Amino acid sequence: MNNLLILINQYLTAFNNNTVMANKNQGNGRATQTPQSGTRSDRRMKPTAHSNDGQVEETDLETTSPNSLKMLFEKELKSIYNVEKQLIKALPEMAKSVSEESLKKTFRHHLEQTEMQKERLEKIFHRLRMDREDEKCLVMEAMIEEGKKLMSEFEEGPVQDAAAIISAQKIEHYEICAYGSLYELADVLGYHKIADILDRSLSEEEGTDRHLSNLGRATHDASFDLSDLEMHRQ
Ligand SMILES: [Fe+2]
């Protein structure tokens, strides 16, 4: 039965590829669009009418060998699940440690988003019939520790806030990479609903990063003024 589903999936993939080629040959305006161009959802192959709204696609690829892409996908899911769990523990402390009210608010808001992102991953585990297991992400552990250490080296105020923003953005960039890769893997595996779910978290991480960049500009200016003042006092 699984072999039959795999064959159907391969047939539908070949059918979609042929349709794309035919559209290109007809010069219908989409011919210039390369797989790398456009938005994430533009690039994605749409679920076919036979896909039962994505549900069949999400169960028809078995983890058969250590070389399977699905196994890599699952490992990365467990890793980002651990990342979110670590961040849920770290964010309240980060919000408490900074001085600027808008930065506190940003960390608190991102905590709410992170809790939702964790729940989304749990939904994905359920869809893929996976256990809610996580795999310890040593990179995240190190980044959180590094951030705490950096902040502890400065007094409360704009410079310490700038250190918090830098540390938080390093974490956001890591998450953007992780969710971006997971999105691409979900897409190539034909898990379209799961790709949509991952896309929501990816957009939130990108939004938080942009917001931190904006806050960073103001904080860095304030830090510079403070450093300048101290230099003149010496
Ligand atoms: Fe996150």
Explain what this protein looks like in three dimensions.
The protein is mainly α. The chain has seven helices and no strands. α3 runs antiparallel to α4 (101-127), α3 (69-97) packs parallel to α5 (138-152) and α6 (158-189) runs antiparallel to α7 (192-233). It is elongated, with a radius of gyration of 22 Å.
Spell out which ligands are present.
fe (ii) ion
Query: What is the helical fraction, as a range of percent?
Result: over 70%
Strand content: under 5%
How would you state the average pLDDT, rounded? 80
> What is the rounded Rg?
22 Å
What is the CATH-assigned architecture of the largest domain?
Up-down Bundle
Q: Can you identify the CATH superfamily of the largest domain?
A: Ferritin, core subunit, four-helix bundle
Q: Return the CATH topology of the largest domain.
A: Ferritin
Could you spell the SSE succession in H and E letters? HHHHHHH
Major beta-sheet overview: none
Q: Distance between the terminal alpha carbons, to the nearest Å?
A: 79 Å
